[in-house]
């Protein structure tokens, strides 16, 4: 009996040592640096199980021991928490880090940025150049319906999905600003706010000027003075199909004869606002129109530094225009 007990004790000890050794080996394999040599993207489809995921990870060279990956995932009840999507795995990532990313849903985010003041046609050109987004946009969305912003996109989304998101974002942004407007806000409809904001957006890239320029245009509207803003003429001439060759939206300077171009968008010929937006304004320009600076300015012209100089009288404005023309001539602008 004594010998049997000794043998059983030895066998049990050996068994425990084997188990401990296996555990330590597995722990070391699970947490050590992986063999992935370069950053790799990996897709998990909806409904895919842990066995298939582990095998695909191994095939992609992201992990080397799919069985161990499955065992640990099931031991931690993580096998049912692996989230579908596209993931980015860095070189030498461990199995522990891989599993953590899949459980947390740390999905790889691609993104693109739509600058303020682009026309809908320009935005469609940007989207259609993004190869990772399937589909092609052939119908140009309504001008002013797309919110300029930085957008994330994920595997499985289409170009049309992002158009829909931008339209919803613009609708929600305008609605929020509309509800937050002050009691003394200008008497404009939502559609008029959008139109004027698009003009403000095209007139200045200087944040501090937006409210002042909005105030100028509102002063002119109140007095029945034509807005006489060049961006509306450019839109009339191009219908929003802007040239992007580094020579301005027309590919040349706006000429005096252009100011006589027949179009309801030409604010040199027709008073009031044009019939629609001339671009897609950002949130700041929309907010500027709903909360303009109160002043007595009716005119402004470029000052040669990227900003504008403002004036209250036509005589003062003419002097500022002469000064600007001199600056432009000296600098071949």
Task: Please sum up the structure shown.
By secondary structure, the protein is mostly helical. The chain is 46% helix and 8% strand. Helix 7 packs across helix 10.
Task: Walk me through what this model shows.
The protein has 333 residues and is mainly α. The chain folds into three domains: 33-108, Endolytic murein transglycosylase (Dna Ligase, domain 1, 2-Layer Sandwich), CATH 3.30.1490.480; 110-164, no CATH class; 183-330, no CATH class. 46% of the residues lie in helices and 8% in strands. The strands form three sheets. Strands 1-2 form a two-stranded antiparallel ribbon. Strand 5 (299-302) and strand 6 (308-311) form a beta hairpin. The mean pLDDT is 88.
**CA radius of gyration:** 31 Å
Mean pLDDT: 88
Which word captures the global form? elongated
Helix content: 40-55%
Beta content comes to: 5-15%
List the helices and strands and how they pair.
Layout: H1 2-31, E1 40-44, H2 50-59, H3 66-75, E2 85-89, H4 95-104, E3 110-113, H5 120-128, E4 150-153, H6 159-180, H7 190-203, H8 210-223, H9 230-238, H10 283-290, E5 299-302, E6 308-311, H11 314-330
Antiparallel strand pairs: 1-2, 3-4, 5-6
Annotation keywords:
mainly alpha, 333 residues, elongated, Dna Ligase, domain 1, 3 domains, two-stranded antiparallel ribbon
């Amino acid at each position: 009996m004594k010998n049997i007990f000794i043998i059983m004790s030895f066998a049990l000890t050996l068994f425990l040592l084997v188990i401990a050794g296996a555990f330590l080996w597995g722990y070391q394999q699970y947490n050590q640096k992986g063999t992935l040599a370069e950053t790799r993207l990996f897709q998990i489809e909806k409904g895919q199980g842990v066995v298939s995921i582990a095998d695909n990870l191994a095939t992609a060279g992201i992990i080397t021991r799919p069985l161990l990956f499955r065992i640990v995932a099931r031991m931690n009840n993580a096998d049912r928490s692996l989230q579908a999507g596209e993931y980015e795995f860095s070189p030498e990532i461990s199995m522990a880090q891989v599993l953590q990313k899949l459980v947390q849903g740390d999905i790889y985010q691609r993104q693109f940025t739509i600058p303020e003041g682009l026309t809908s046609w320009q935005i469609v050109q940007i989207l259609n150049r993004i190869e990772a987004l399937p589909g092609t946009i052939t119908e140009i969305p309504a001008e002013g319906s797309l919110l300029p912003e930085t957008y994330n996109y994920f595997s499985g989304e289409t170009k049309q999905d992002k158009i829909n998101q931008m339209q919803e974002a613009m609708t929600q942004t305008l609605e929020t600003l509309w509800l937050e407007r002050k009691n003394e806000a200008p008497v404009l409809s939502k559609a008029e706010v959008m139109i004027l904001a698009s003009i403000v957006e095209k007139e200045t890239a200087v944040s501090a000027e937006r409210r002042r320029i909005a105030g100028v245009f509102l002063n002119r509207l109140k007095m029945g003075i034509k807005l006489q803003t060049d961006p509306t003429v450019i839109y009339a001439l191009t219908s929003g199909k802007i040239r992007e060759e580094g020579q301005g939206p027309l590919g040349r300077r706006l000429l005096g004869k252009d100011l006589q171009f027949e179009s309801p968008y030409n604010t040199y010929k027709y008073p009031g606002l044009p019939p629609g937006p001339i671009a897609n304004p950002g949130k700041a320009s929309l907010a500027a129109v709903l909360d303009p600076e109160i002043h007595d300015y009716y005119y402004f012209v470029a000052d040669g530094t990227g900003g504008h100089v403002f004036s209250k009288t036509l005589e003062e404005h003419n002097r500022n225009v002469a000064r600007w023309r001199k600056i432009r001539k000296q600098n071949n602008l």
